[in-house]
User: What shape does this take?
Amino acid sequence: GLTASARRDRSRDVLAGIFARMTSALASDERAVQFPIPAGVHAEKVVSVRHYTDRLFSFRITRPQSFRFRSGEFVMIGLPNAEKPVFRAYSVASPAWDEELEFFSIKVPDGPLTQHLQKIQPGDTVLMRQKSTGTLVLDALTPAKRLFMISTGTGIAPFASLLRDPDTYEKFEQVYLTHTCRDRAELAYGQELVAALKDDPLIGELTEGRVTLYNSTTREESPCMGRITALIGSGKFYSDLGIEPFNPETDRVMICGSMEMLRDVKELVEGLGFVEGSLSAPASFVVERAFVG
Ligand code: A2P
Assistant: This one.
């Protein structure tokens, strides 16, 4: 058995351990309230988080009463974990009529924001700057018959918003969303989004028979493989869907993904006679870089 002095040492260790845990809990509580919310920034609560893969997750936060945005725009998101928090651009993935705000994010192991953001839990606080902005808006395009949304990775986020906006269907008869990722698991967010459209009480009827999802993967075997640029270039994209090739007379294109993808798709559509549009001069295509890091 233990001697009396060993027993005393042991209980002292146990008490010291409990005390250390209590003080560190207090310290982390203090840390949470230590940093004031910067001026001009909303502090919102995380409502839910969903992890799709070790690289991708989505989260929903409460929406400030006063916050208005155009579908397709982005906001600056941060965490209350520093005097001067790091903010990054995030496309709002939820539609303008939603009570909450949804975002789709990459997880970068050493990303200044996402290394922390990927750990958020319901109830945590997320910071959001008040102004939204962006080029992937319906008003930057002139009306046409078909709208093509070309995305890779988290570049699908602004289209998740636009696909749930009734104005998209006011302006276009048919909507085609392409989403290319490295592997199949990364396609789940978009597949579920499109599958849920028909059951949506607000826009279900409006979207019926008018939305087509085209998926491909580049690093894992799947029914359709290859970069979207190659699939469009070879004509496989058109023949798979049984549709007419891109035509600036009848079509509009929105592009969102990595820098290189934007450059290549932009070059491709410009080669076909599409002209980049903006709010001040609406035209036939628009481009936006997806958030990285
Ligand atoms: P790839 O695997 O051939 O690089 P990421 O997750 O790295 O952002 O990539 C998302 C998807 O975008 C991947 O399938 C990737 O293909 C694809 N991609 C990367 N660069 C381009 C590009 N220049 N044009 C078209 N697709 C691209």
In short: The longest helix spans residues 4-34. DSSP finds nine helices and eleven strands in the chain. Residues 220 and 229 are 17 Å apart (CA to CA). The pocket of adenosine-2'-5'-diphosphate is lined by residues 152-153, 180-182, 218-219, 227-229, 257-258, 260-261, 264 (CB under 6 Å).
